[in-house]
Amino acid sequence: MLLKQVFIGRKHLLSTYNCGLVMFPIRRLTSATGPFNFVGGKRVEPVDRLCDTIVINPAKGEELCHVPSSGKLEVARAVSAAKEAFKTWSQFSNTERGKMLTAVGSKIRSNLEDIAHLEVLNNGKPIWEARVDIASCADAFEYFGGTIASLTGQHVPLQGDNFAMVCREPLGVVVGIGAWNFPLQTCSWKVAPALACGNTMVYKPSQLTPLTAILLAEILTEVGVPKGVLNIVQGAGETGSHMCHHPDVAKISFTGSVATGVNIMTAAAAGMKKVTLELGGKSPLIIFNDADVDNAVKAAMVANFLSQGQVCSNGTRVFVQNAIAEEVLERLVNATNNLKIGDPFEEDTTVGATISEEQAEKVLSYIKEAEKKGAIVLCGGRRISLPAPLDNGIFVSPCILSNCHDDMRVVKEEVFGAVMTFLTFSTEEEVVQRANKTPYGLAGGVFTRDLSRAFRVIRQLEAGTVWINNYNLYPPELPFGGYKWSGIGRENGTAVFEHYTQTKTVFVETGDVDAGPLYPQ
Ligand code: NAD
C-alpha cells in the first residue's frame, strides 16, 4: 500500500531518492508524500487550506511536493487539540514527561540517517552537517528529558509559622514558528523544553522546509506522547499570523528574521501573549595579533561557511589586527578556494545548495553593491553551474570581500549567505567600538592567547553568546539568544524553563488573620 502511494503519487521523489543515495525505509519515505499536517495524533489534510506551497530540492532545483497551507479554521483545530491535550499532559509528573522526551531523543538518534537525508533533500546543506544538526535535536530531547525532573518549586519560610510555596506551572498552549536554515533543530529547541515543562504546542515549520517536523511528531507518538501534545500545521506568514492571533495561545516562540519578529511581537502584544524571539545577527569575529592563527582561521571558516553561510550566529564581520592581517587573509582565501561545492549527498562536499533562488539573488546583490562601493571580491561570490543532475541547482560560491568599510550594507546588514567581510583594526579599544556598532547582538568571537584581554573584550561585547578561541558551538546546556535586535528570551540551558513556565505564589496562613484597624481583635 505504502509502496504504491510513493510510486503513483510522487514519481519524481523516487528518482531523487534512488539517485545514488542510501535507500530510505519506505515507511519514512512516505513522510515526503503527505498529508503534511499533524493534528490530534495523526496526519491530516487541513480543514481549510490557503494556496499550496511548492517545496523544492534546492540542489536540483526540482519540485519535491506540494504542501497545502493551513487557514484559520485548521489553526483553530490544532490549537483546540493542544488545549485539550494540555489538561492531561500538564498533570504528568516531570519525571514521566522526562522519560518520554528522553525516549524521543533515542528514537531520533536511531533514525538519524533517514532524518538527515530528508533534511538535506529539502534544505540543500551537506549531509555531514545535517547529521550534526539531527544529533543536536536528539541532544535537546535527552537534555531536557533529563533535567526537567530537577525543576521544582520553592518553600519560603515566613514570619511565625507561616510559609509560602512558589509553584512552577506550565503556560498552556505554546505556538512555535521556525526558520528554514536548521529546520528540525529549530523545531526541537522549542518542542523539547516547552513540552518538558508541561505545555502543549502547535508548531509551524518554514514553508520552505516543512518535511522533517512531521517526522518528529510521528516519533513523539511512537514513544507514547499523548495525541494533541505536539501538532504541526504547515503554511507561510498568513498561517503563522493566525497562530499568533489565536486567543487560546499563551506564548509564541519564534525563530526567524527581525522584520517578522516585529510583526509577531505586535500580534502578541494585542493578546498579551508571552514571546521568545530568536532573530538575526551580524556578529563580529575578532582576531588579535597574538592569536593561534591556525585555530582562528579554522574557526573563521566555520563561522562563515557552514550551511552556505545561512547561520544566524555567523561571525561575518571578521576583524583582524594589522600585523597578521595579510597572513590570515591569504590563508582564508586558500581555504575557501579549496571548498568543494557540489552534491550535498556526497560525503566530501563542503558547500551545498542555497535554499532558494530568491535567497541566492539576495546574496549576489549584496556582493555586487559592495563591489560598486569599492570592496574587492577575493574569491567566490558567483552563481555556479554544476553538471547534471545538479544543473538546475542553486549554488553560490563562498565569497571573501576585502577593502570593506563599516558603513557598507554588506558589513551592516545580515546577508544570510556565504559572504565574509574582511576588516582590519589597530587597537583593542577601536575593535570593541566597531564590533558593537550594530543593532544586532546575537554572538561574537575573540581570538587571543592573552586571557586578560579575552575577558576584557568579551565583557564589553554586546552579544548573547561569545566564544573565546572557537566559534559556533551550541551544546544544549548553554543558553542561546540575543541582545538588542537579535531577540528576546533564551533557548537551551535550564534558563529556558523560566520562559516556558510561570510561578504561582501560594501564601499559607497557619494562625489568625490580622486585619489591623479594619477588623480589631
Ligand atoms: P522569516 O522571518 O522570513 O520566517 C520565519 C518564519 O516566520 C517562517 O516560518 C515564516 O513562515 C513565518 N512568518 C512569516 N511572517 C509571519 C507572520 N506575519 N506571522 C507569523 N509567522 C510568520 O525568516 P527565515 O527567512 O525563515 O529565516 C531566516 C532568518 O532567521 C534570519 O534572519 C536568521 O538570522 C534567523 N534565524 C535566527 C536564529 C536564532 O536562533 N537567533 C536561528 C535561525 C535563523
Question: Please, could you describe this protein's structure?
Answer:
The protein folds into two domains: 9-280, Aldehyde Dehydrogenase, Chain A, domain 1; 284-468, Aldehyde Dehydrogenase, Chain A, domain 2 (3-Layer(aba) Sandwich). The chain is α/β, with parallel strands linked by helices and 521 residues long. The chain contains 18 helices and 24 strands. A seven-stranded mixed β-sheet has the order 14-17-18-13-12-20-21, with helices on both faces. Strands 9-8-7-10-11-23 form a six-stranded mixed β-sheet, sandwiched between helices. The chain has a three-stranded antiparallel β-sheet with strand order 5-6-24. α5 (94-110) packs antiparallel against α7 (127-147), α7 (127-147) packs parallel to α8 (183-196) and α12 (293-305) crosses α13 (322-337). The chain starts with a helix and ends in a 13-residue tail after the last strand. Residues 177-182, 186, 204, 206-207, 236-237, 240-241, 244, 255-257, 260, 263-264, 278-281, 312, 414, 416, 442, 482, 487 line the site of nicotinamide-adenine-dinucleotide (NAD).
Features:
single chain, 521 residues, alpha/beta, Aldehyde Dehydrogenase, Chain A, domain 1, Aldehyde Dehydrogenase, Chain A, domain 2, 2 domains, 7-stranded mixed sheet, 18 helices
Which compounds are bound in this model? nicotinamide-adenine-dinucleotide
Structural class assignment: alpha/beta
CATH superfamily of the largest domain: Aldehyde Dehydrogenase, Chain A, domain 1
Strand order of the largest sheet: 14-17-18-13-12-20-21
Helix content: 25-40%
User: Within the CATH hierarchy, at the fold level, what is the topology of the largest domain?
Assistant: Aldehyde Dehydrogenase, Chain A, domain 1
Shape: globular
SS strand fraction: 15-25%
Distance between the termini: 80 Å
